[in-house]
Amino acid sequence: MAIYEVFLKKDGRDEFRHAGALDAANDELAFVMARESYARRAEGDRLWLVERSNVLVADAEFVAPNADKPHRHHDGAAVAARRKSIREQADIADDSESQ
Amino acid sequence: MPSVMSRTWESLEEFEAFLDDGGIVEVDDAMPDEYRQAVFAFIEMHANSELMGGLTERDWIPKTPGLRHKMSVLAKTQDEIGHGHLLYMVAADMGVKTRTEMLEDLFAGRSRFHNVFHYQAKTWGDQVAIAFLVDAAALASQQAVFKNCSYGPYRRILKRIISEEGFHMRLGEDRMMRIAQGTEKQRALFQDSLDRWFWPALQLFGPDSKPNDVLLKWHIKSERNEVLRSRWVQKFVPMLHSYGFTIPAPDLRYDEEAKQWDVGPIDWEPLKATLAQGGPDSARRIGEALDNWQRTAWVRSALESAPESGPEKTGNPSPVPA
Question: Which domains are delineated in chain A?
Fold first, then answer.
C-alpha cells in the first residue's frame, strides 16, 4: 500500500488544487479510488496523483525569512492621503460655490 | 491509465468555437499549430521583456538614492527576473523552443522585447518615469490578457505577475509624488524624464489593432490596442497635470464632446525601429545582456554537474499536513 496525494482541476481557469489523500495498493487502483472518493460529482475533470513519499516538504524555518520583507510591499498610503486631501479641497470649493 | 490527457479538435473552426465558448486550453491539449505558435510568440516576448526590464532595474541598484528606495529597487529587480523565470517555463512547456534557444535568440538580437527597453535610463527621474508610466502601461496590457486569456498556464501565471506589478505601480506613483513635492531642480529632473518617456510608454500599447488580429480572435487579448492606449491617456494626462507637469504633446487637447483627452497624431517610426533592434539603446542593451549570459556560464555548468539528490533526500519521512 502507498499513500497518494490527490490534486484536482476543474476545466477552465482554475489551477490544480490539493483535494486530499488516499491509500491504495497500486497506481491503477489509486486512480479509481481518487475518482470515486474525490470526483464523484464532477469536482474536477483533470486529476493528478503524487505518491506522498515523493512530496518534498520545506521546513517552516526555511520558508520563514520571506515573512518579514516589508520593502517588497507598498501600501500606497502617501498617495492615497494626497488624493483624499485633493477630494476634500474640491468638496470645500463646491460648497462655497453653491452658497 | 494514460499519463497525459489530451483534447483534440477536428478542425480550426471547431477549436475556435471551443475558444468562443470560453474554453481554456491546457499545455497537453492537441491545440492547432497556428494557435501554439501565436501564443508562444506572445509569451516569449513577454518573458524577454521581463528579463530585459529586470536587467535595467539591476543597473540602478547601486545608483538609487537612499536606502528605502534602494531596497524597493532590489525587490523590484527580483520580481522582474522572477517573472522572466515563470514565463520562460510556461513558454518552454509549449514545445516550440527550449529556454536556452529563447535566450540565445534574445541575445543574438533575433527575437523581440518591449520598445521601452530599447531606451537608456539616464537619470533617477527616468527610473521614476519608468516605474510610473511604463509599469502602468505594461500592467494595463497584462490585465487585459488576464481578463479573458484562453491559454490556461499563461493566465494562471499572470495572476501572480499582475499582483507584483501592482506593487511596482504603487511604488512608481509614490516616487513620482515625492519628486513632485521636491525642489525646483527635482521637478525639472522629472519633467525632463517625462519629456523623453511619455511617447515610448504610450507606444508600448502598439498601433491600432488590425481587424484580423488572431490574438483577439483567439481570446489572448481581450481589448484592442487603441482602447488600452486611450484608457492610459485618460488616466495619466490629468494625473500628471495634477502634479503640475506638462505633457510633451504639442497637439494635446481635451475633446469636450467625447469628454476625453486626445494626444494628437502618433509617430510610429520609433516603435518600428525598436522592433528591428534599432532603438537608441538597443545594441548596448543586447550586448550587455549577452555579456551577462556569457559571464554567468560557469554557474550553469556548475549546476549541470551538481550531484543528484540521493534516496535519503527524496524519501521525505514527514507527512504532508492536511
Answer: 2-98 (3.10.20.520)
